[in-house]
């Protein structure tokens, strides 16, 4: 009887603990150079896409735009998140829209030599919509656009 009463409490506590552990892992953004060793072709493909120079693009509308949070947030990795882009002095490796914008922070995956369950394997439409919002990109079509994210790499 006692056990039954306590079960939900215990489960709740466990859930809490695992959420905390997960939050710590999720703080770890590395930048794309950490992926090259094992995914060289995909890195090369991605480098040919507009995402790979998204930060530079901000300058088109004035150099100062690279310092405006409301612009920077969709043109870099994980702006204002734990371990994400801060500025070009502190986190130059996290400029542009990179692997980890879509696949999530890579540290755990890299440290395990590539455990595929430690990141997002198939980023869904919602992951694009953080930036390709209605307001920003009205005609965004996930099915067509998802094929372009690694460049010519199939
Ligand atoms: C030490 C080698 C290594 C490094 C470094 C590495 N990966 Fe991986 N990655 C792997 C291996 C091995 C797999 C599993 C391949 C499989 O199961 O087909 C994998 C799988 C993946 C998958 C899922 C593929 C699937 O459908 O299962 C993604 C996404 C991925 N890696 C992204 C990245 C990103 C992003 C980085 C850089 C932050 C990175 N990887 C760095 C070795 C690595
Ligand atoms: C962190 C923000 C962000 C995320 C997340 C994001 N994008 Fe983008 N995307 C951009 C920015 C910014 C540009 C413009 C880059 C430039 O031209 O400098 C862009 C451009 C593109 C382009 C080239 C222009 C076009 O519209 O054809 C494609 C294709 C694209 N994104 C597809 C995707 C897909 C598919 C996803 C999700 C799987 C995604 N993006 C996720 C910010 C993002
Ligand atoms: C909500 C996310 C988001 C914000 C905020 C944002 N951008 Fe973008 N930006 C995108 C996406 C997505 C694209 C690619 C799709 C497109 O062309 O609309 C893009 C494309 C661009 C381009 C490529 C040229 C073009 O218009 O196609 C420029 C330049 C640009 N953004 C500048 C800016 C500036 C300057 C700001 C701040 C005033 C800003 N962006 C804020 C997401 C964003
Ligand atoms: C704009 C979002 C986006 C970016 C940036 C991106 N990916 Fe992906 N990635 C995806 C999507 C979406 C899929 C699933 C493709 C599908 O739907 O078949 C995928 C699939 C993968 C896979 C598994 C399938 C395959 O092609 O082998 C790997 C590995 C991978 N990505 C690694 C990377 C690496 C490494 C980078 C950075 C150089 C990167 N991705 C950049 C969205 C992205």
Describe the structure.
- The protein has helices at 2-26, 36-47, 54-57, 69-72, 99-103, 107-111, 125-129, 142-145.
- The protein is built from 8 helices and no strands.
- The protein is an all-alpha fold.
- The chain has one domain (2-148): Flavocytochrome C3, Chain A, domain 2 (Orthogonal Bundle), CATH 1.10.1130.
- The radius of gyration is 19 Å and the shape is globular.
- One heme C binds at residues 32, 35, 39, 42-43, 46, 51, 97-99, 101-103, 122-123, 146, 149-150.
Radius of gyration: 19 Å
- Portion of residues within helices: 40-55%
Return the string of H and E elements. HHHHHHHH
Largest sheet features: none
Number of separate domains: 1
* CATH-derived architecture: Orthogonal Bundle
What class would the helix/strand composition place it in? Answer: mainly alpha
Molecular shape? globular
What is the CATH homologous superfamily assignment?
A: Flavocytochrome C3, Chain A
SS summary, helix count: 8
By DSSP, the count of extended strands is 0
Main CATH class: Mainly Alpha
